[in-house]
Design goal:
Blueprint: H1 2-32, H2 37-46, H3 52-57, E1 77-83, E2 93-94, E3 97-98, H4 99-117, E4 121-125, H5 136-145, E5 150-157, E6 167-170, H6 178-193, E7 199-203, E8 206-211, E9 217-219, H7 222-229, E10 233-241, H8 256-273
Parallel strand pairs: 1-4, 1-5, 5-10, 6-7
Antiparallel strand pairs: 2-3, 6-10, 8-9
Bound molecules: zinc ion (ZN).
């Protein structure tokens, strides 16, 4: 009988020991077991650990700086500048001033300002010298070939009476391009106006002899017409009048860079604030 009791006690002790060892194994499993998400989340609830974010955003010792997000790279823009006329076509002339030459000077200055002050813009000219005269479609093609965001053709205005002054921008009337063209035009005009140049607004002009398949006249100005046909913003900036005594000062060598700066700022203002990555549909 005593032996039986001893055996029973030993068995009981063995069972208690096995049970305790089992609990121990389960306890270890809490730290090691991660086969199910549910279980793992319990582990996390029980034992908070630093996440990667915690480590990154941990405040510095002085506690004043806040974490700053990594800046996204700025969008890159491609701008085509088209100095109007060239080759055997000087454009308007007045009092020793020649439009094709001034257009080229101005385009180079706009390019210089853009590339010196903005790292996210590439500028391409449709002509680099006075000897070449690309056709109007070739000038727009420079924009298309380079996947440009905009084509800005630079000109100077003139009238028979030599009595007008100020800046205007000729834009397409086609619905796929006109609203964005107008926004770009107004950005440029507003900046020219801040220099003191009169703002004559935007101009749309119908062709007298060319019509689309519905009988509606297309744009008169080739740059605007080819641009609209190819869904690229292409407009003509008449920066001021070459034959105006009031505007003449802006075409002198000390003021031409100021006019270029105003146009460059207008271009970037449009691209960074109003541009919707191409023509609207
Ligand atoms: Zn012109």
């Amino acid at each position: 009988m005593r032996r039986k009791v001893t055996a029973a006690v030993l068995l009981l002790l063995l069972l208690v020991c096995l049970s305790a060892c089992g609990d121990k194994e389960d306890e270890d499993d809490i730290h090691n077991y991660n086969k199910t998400g549910e279980y793992e989340s319990n582990i996390n609830d029980a034992i908070p650990t630093a996440t990667e974010d915690d480590l990154i955003t941990k405040p510095p010792v002085n506690g004043t700086a806040t974490p700053t997000p990594t800046p996204k790279p700025a969008k890159q823009y491609i701008v085509v500048l088209d100095p109007g006329h060239g080759g055997n076509d000087p454009g308007a002339s007045y009092d020793g001033r020649k439009e094709s030459y001034l257009n080229l000077q101005l385009a180079n200055l706009v390019k210089e300002y853009l590339t010196s002050n903005y790292s996210n813009v590439t500028v391409i000219l449709t002509r680099e010298d006075e000897n070449t005269k690309p056709s109007l479609s070739e000038r727009v093609d420079v924009g298309l070939d380079n996947k440009a965001d905009i084509v800005v053709s630079l000109h100077l205005d003139a009238t028979e009476s030599h009595k007008s002054h100020g800046a205007s921008v000729l834009i397409s009337k086609q619905p796929n391009i006109t609203e964005q063209s107008k926004k770009l035009a107004n950005c440029i005009l507003k900046n020219l106006e801040s220099l003191g140049i009169k703002n004559n607004g935007t101009v749309k002009k119908d062709s007298k002899d060319t019509f689309d398949e519905n009988g509606v006249p297309v744009d008169y100005y080739g740059i605007c017409r080819y641009g609209a046909a190819n869904n690229i913003i292409a407009l003509i900036v008449e920066s001021c009048y070459i034959d105006s005594d009031i505007d003449a000062d802006y075409l002198k060598s000390d003021m031409l860079p100021k006019m270029a700066e105003a146009e460059a700022k207008g271009i970037m203002e449009f691209l960074t604030k109003h541009y919707n990555n191409g023509a609207e549909g």
